[in-house]
Amino acid sequence: MATVAVILAAGLGTRMKSRLPKVLHPILGDPSLLWVLRTLPPDLGGAVVVVHHGKDQVLAALDAWSKAGLLPCPVTAVDQGEPLGTGHALQVCIPELDRLGASKVAILCGDVPLTSAATVFRLCAAEAVLLAMDLPAPGSYGRVLQHADGRLAGVVEAKDATPEQLAVRRVNGGAYALPWPALKRALQNLTNANAQKEYYLTDAVAAVAAELPVAVEICDPEELAGMNSRLDQAALQAAAQTRIQRHWMTEGVTFLHPDSTFVGPRAALGRDVVLEPGVRLEGSVSVGEGCRIGQGTVILDSTLDDGAEVRPYCVLEHARVGAGAKVGPFARLREGTELGEGVHIGNFVETKKARLQRGAKANHLAYLGDTEIGEGSNIGAGVITCNYDGVNKHRTTIGRNVFVGSDSQLVAPLTIGDGALIGAGSTVTRDVPADAVALSRTPQTQREGAASRLRDRQKKQSRVS
Ligand code: UD1
Ligand code: CA
User: Fold this and answer.
1) Does residue 54 have its Cβ closer than 6 Å to ligand 1?
2) Among 53, 141, 164, 331, which residue's Cβ finds the most Cβ atoms within 10 Å?
3) Interatomic CA distance for residues 77 and 61, integer angstroms
4) Is the pTM of this model over 0.90?
5) Could you read off the pLDDT of 74-94 as tens digits, one per residue?
């Protein structure tokens, strides 16, 4: 018998005014639902996500997260059909929870992203508990009613509450852990006789509380804040960013301008990392000790080994930067870029599926795509790997200690052997053996004194016309 999590994510999210389902709206680059799933303890008997609005998008996201190894436990989805309330959302899960052998159910909302893993761990470990918060302005939240000893007596929705009940400031956070047999019985007896004609999960929770003691745990309101509008989204992002930056500051990271810096929840930063103003680290980003990331640089799903430096205004996606490598300013490392130790990539260099071995350099204005570049090779300014013939992509393989002169075009498929030298301005279409010099530029012609003669002629012509 096991604890199974249920995550409610079928609602429309009308106030977001969006084509995207609410639970897929991001907080610092990661969708709200992913934040929630990530907090689940790995030893759960599984998690069931209740979906409906935007179902195809949510299912596609779940599949992608599962493949990327981002989900701590097995996750299945149940389509609620027309959402008839939070209680109905649990009713449609009955067969799935029975199939998973649930003995206890932990219920969370997909649009409450900032509940900490520690709180979710406590929730999953409790026998029977409701998470609550004390708010100065309790608004539309359900009000928590307690017995004298603190046990839960019930929850009244704001729309159904008496004026005395509305004055209660302790509100329901919408997260619960309850024994499954008792909850299942309560769900089977649920009615929708209330102001909203909905099947309220809170009524089922109250019915369980009449059978057995349900504790009320008070949480930091930030942990239970929901995302119902773009305003909420902005506030949650700000709160999450403060939390993440504080954490990395205590771990030895310098933020030169915290307010303009964006560090996602899956970034891992080493000691003595320095982030200059306007840096954005999104997705799975790992930054080794002593790295410096320059102003305005955007890094997505990439790894920087110790001591790497990315200068201002670079964009890195799905790239790996070796120890002590230097990148930028103004460089673009696209998917599949792998830079070895001490590699230099300078300004206006674009790389894609490019592997540069230790100490290789491409310091200015180059496009390196589908290419392997050996240790110590130097790629001159303006070099282009012509990897695409309009239909297919082809590879360029460059050996060790090769010198590719400036403004050369390397027409793939192409192999250049170790130690070869390509003269500047060459268009290389045939393989170059090791240690060879290859040169393909047109021989230069010149006529002594011809420039002034030409200019005189040009002046005469301009007087006539
Ligand atoms: C619910 C609680 C309320 C609590 C509040 C906390 C009920 C009846 N009320 O209120 O006491 O203070 O949460 O945020 O439960 N959802 C479904 N299917 C549905 C309806 C909702 O999956 O049929 C999902 C929504 O997508 C959302 C979550 O359940 O993720 C909560 O729904 P929402 O409508 O925001 O709940 P409230 O009525 O505001
Ligand atoms: Ca609501």
Assistant:
1) no
2) 331
3) 12
4) yes
5) 999 999 999 999 999 999 999
Tokens describing residue 382: 């303006």
User: Token pair for residue 439?
Assistant: 């040169």
Q: Hey, which of 86, 159, 203 would you mutate to test ligand 1's pocket, going by the most ligand atoms within 8 Å of its Cβ?
A: 86
- C-alpha 90: how far from its chain's center? 29
Cis previous bond, 329, omega within 30:
yes
141 lines ligand 1 (CB under 6 A): yes
Question: Is 255's C-beta closer than 6 angstroms to any atom of ligand 1?
Answer: no
For domain 247-438, give its CATH number from 2.40.110.20, 2.160.10.10, 3.40.50.10240, 3.40.50.1220.
Answer: 2.160.10.10
Check if 365 has its Cβ closer than 6 Å to any atom of ligand 1. Answer: no
Say which amino acid occupies 83: P
Homologous superfamily (CATH) for 2-224:
Spore Coat Polysaccharide Biosynthesis Protein SpsA; Chain A (3.90.550.10)
Q: Which atom of ligand 1 is nearest to the CA of 198?
A: 8
CA of 42 to the centre of ligand 2 (A): 30
Domain with CATH 2.160.10.10 in the chain: 247-438
**Residues involved in catalysis:** 364
Q: How close is the Cα of 242 to the center of ligand 1, in Å?
A: 27
- pLDDT one-digit tens code per residue, 238-249: 999 999 999 999
